[in-house]
Specification:
With 160 residues, this protein is an all-alpha fold. It folds into 2 domains: 71 residues, no CATH class; 77 residues, no CATH class. It is 57% helix and 2% strand. The protein contains 9 helices and 2 strands, in the order αααααααααββ. The protein has a two-stranded antiparallel ribbon with strand order 1-2. Helix 1 runs antiparallel to helix 4, helix 2 packs antiparallel against helix 3 and helix 3 runs antiparallel to helix 4. The model has no long low-confidence stretch (mean pLDDT 78).
Length: 160
Amino acid sequence: MLIFYRLHKIANVLGAMPKTAHPGAKKALAEIWNAEDRRHAHDAVRAFEAAYGAKFGKAAAKITDDVEVLLAFYDFPAEHWIHLRTTNPIVHVRHRTKITRGPGSRAAGLAMAFKLIESAQGRWRAVNGPHLVALVRAGATFVNGTLVERPDDHHQPEAA
């Protein structure tokens, strides 16, 4: 779900900017998504706001207003980040739906997406850190990709 949100957010940000600003904005957005940890991601968000906020306030606000949702993948194991950042499942489904010119109904679209993903998953790489999936499902706390043994004793670093 995070990847869908991110792709939608990128499209909205770029839609609020002229095409001439897209190359630089895409690079700045990539700095946010690919930061090594939450602190570096917040630094990249501030850099994006400094570079584009004055001229394209609406575009910058689309990032700064939802920054914690955009960076939510840092609350998962670092081994899983590559999977949470990838667009491979979306690209596969989007390609097929363009060929068929849409699924028709919502139910048919969901069924088609499910079958396409089900058939493609055999070609996808396995999840990094599969032993951590059970911890995530159990509600374990991760900060910047690292398991926190005692969440009560841990204080979150300030984002600002």
